[in-house]
Amino acid sequence: MKLLENSSFEAINSQLTVETGDAHIIGRIESYSCKMAGDDKHMFKQFCQEGQPHVLEALSPPQTSGLSPSRLSKSQGGEDESPLSDKCSRKTLFYLIATLNESFRPDYDFSTARSHEFSREPSLRWVVNAVNCSLQDSWTTEFIFVFLIGPVHSSSKGQ
Fold it and tell me: GO:BP terms for this protein (predicted)?
C-alpha cells in the first residue's frame, strides 16, 4: 500500500483545512495503490493465517437508526435477519485496515482491528451528512461554500 501523489488533490486539500477559534480541522483527499509491498505482504500473510481471504466476515450493524441496504432488500420471509447480516471479504477487510494504517501511521495502528469494529452504512450521502453534522459547529462560511459548492475557479468555460 502506497500513497499516490496527486497534484489535483492538493488544490482541493488546501481548501479543506479550516481553523476556527475552537478547532483545527485538517481535511484531505488521498489515493493509495492496492499493490502490496514489504510490510503489507508480511501483514497479509499473518492476516491469512487467521482465515482465507475470500471468506466473508460479519460487520457490525450500521450506525444509523434505520436498516442497512442489504436488510432493506431482503424479503420478510425466512432469510437471515440477524443484525450482523452485512458482510465483507477478509481481503476487503485487509485493504481497509492497510489503508487506515498507511493514512494514520505512525500515530495509530489498526492491525488488530476486527470485522465487528466496522459497519457498512446505507449510503455515501448518509455518511457525508453524519460527518457534516458532527463538524457543523466548527464550520466557517468560507469552508461551507468550498465544501458544498466547490472551489471557485476564475474561468467559467462551458457554463
Answer: negative regulation of transcription by RNA polymerase III
Q: Is the pLDDT of residue 158 over 60?
A: no
Task: Dump pLDDT digits (tens) for 139-150.
Answer: 655 555 555 555
Are the beta carbons of 27 and 146 closer than 8 angstroms? no
**pLDDT number for residue 80:** 46
Q: How far apart are the first and last CA of the chain?
A: 39
Structural element, H or E, at residue 134: helix 124-135
Residue 58: φ, ψ to 5°: -75, 140
Closest CA to 22 of 135, 130, 132, 131: 135
**DSSP helix/strand/coil, 42:** helix
The pLDDT-based confidence of 39 (bands split at 50, 70, 90) is confident
**Is residue 24 within a helix (H) or strand (E), and if so which, with residue range?**
strand 24-26
Closest C-alpha among 159, 144, 157 to residue 15:
144
pLDDT for residue 143: 56
Beta pairing, strands 24-26 & 2-4: unpaired
Please name the residue that has the C-alpha cell 510490510. Answer: 39
Question: Which residues, at least 6 apart from 121, have a Cβ–Cβ distance to it below 8 Å?
Answer: 62, 63, 64, 68, 127, 130
